[in-house]
Amino acid sequence: MKFIKLMMLTILYIMVTSQHNYAQNNSQISDSIKTITVKVKGLTCAGDLKTIAANVEKLSGVNTCKTGKMGAISSFKVTYNITKVSAKEINAAIENTSGCENPNDRPYKVK
């Protein structure tokens, strides 16, 4: 009988400590994921939205880059891992994207 109680306590202890470690690991992962909205001016067509989003998503650490509506100032919602890429790198990727009309131009500016 004592052996069974001891085994049950041991199993219970293992379950509690493993759940605590799992919760800590999950918290660390969610703390490193961030979502920002980047406003960009200089877009002239819907192709610009797709091109910029594709270039941002190529960055290591970027999970998603969702485009907003086309306008004088368009927005992009970017979800990324802050341990792998910074907001400055995302902004640089946007501003270094070549234009639709002239591939040598860099018309996009982060606002």
Description:
- 46% of the residues lie in helices and 23% in strands.
- The protein has 111 residues and is an alpha+beta fold.
- The protein has 2 domains: 1-31; 32-110, Alpha-Beta Plaits (2-Layer Sandwich).
- The chain has a 4-stranded antiparallel beta sheet.
- The longest helix is centred in the first third of the chain and has 30 residues, at 2-31.
- The termini are far apart.
- The model has no long low-confidence stretch (mean pLDDT 85).
SSE topology:
Layout: H1 2-31, E1 33-41, H2 46-57, E2 62-67, E3 73-81, H3 87-95, E4 109-110
Structure keywords:
four-stranded antiparallel beta sheet; alpha+beta; Alpha-Beta Plaits; 111 residues; 3 helices; 23% strand
Task: State the assembly state of the protein chains.
Answer: single chain
User: What is the residue-averaged pLDDT?
Assistant: 85
Q: What helical percentage do the residues reach? A: 40-55%
Ends apart, CA distance between termini? 71 Å
Going by CATH, the architecture of the largest domain would be 2-Layer Sandwich
Tell me the overall shape: rod-shaped
